[in-house]
Amino acid sequence: MKYSQTFALATLAFLLQGCATVFEGYYDRVELVNPPDSLRVCTSQGVEIPVERSTIRVRTAPDSNTWESRPATFIQLRSNLDPVLILRSGAQERRVQAFGKIKAAWFFLDMIFVVPLVVDGVTGNWNSYEPIEASFE
Predict the structure, then answer these.
(1) Who has greater pLDDT, 91 or 64?
(2) Residue 65 belongs to a domain
(3) Cβ pair 100, 79 in contact under 8 A
(4) How many domains does the chain have?
(5) Residue 37 to residues 33, 50, 122, 137: CA-CA distances in angstroms?
């Protein structure tokens, strides 16, 4: 009896979380497009955001089954914010406003239960960001 109550409580706690909160977490990985090598990213409050450089695999064409590797640059942003980012490269500086957009799939999954809809809505974890243009040209 004790184990079934524990299992029921654990299952209920899992179901009351938002789908996006459980599967995506509180941060979104945002790609920076055309960044210079010396790029630094800060918030408008002066907090530096780490820039991650990696290699990703992409399709050579939308309807193709062939893939190629290309370099990519990313930052992690909190899903519930629409931050003003300061992009710096040498003496150049540029401000960019990042806006989160609701991923429809998380919204519709959350609608199955009411509480997950509230959880993901309050935390903003169902948001994602479009890639940010980071060139200075």
Answers:
(1) 91
(2) yes
(3) yes
(4) 1
(5) 12, 14, 37, 14
Segments forming the whole domain that contains residue 105: 17-133
Please indicate, yes or no, if residue 10 is contained in any of the structural domains: no
Supply 47's token pair: 């907090």
Residue 77 resides in a domain: yes
Give CA 89 to chain center in angstroms: 23
The confidence band for 95, taking pLDDT boundaries of 50, 70 and 90, is very high
Question: What's the predicted TM-score (pTM) here?
Answer: 0.75
| pLDDT of amino acid 14 | 61
Q: List b or e across 10-40, with b for residues whose CB sees 16 or more CB atoms inside 10 angstroms.
A: eeeeeeebbbbbeebeeebebebeebbeebe
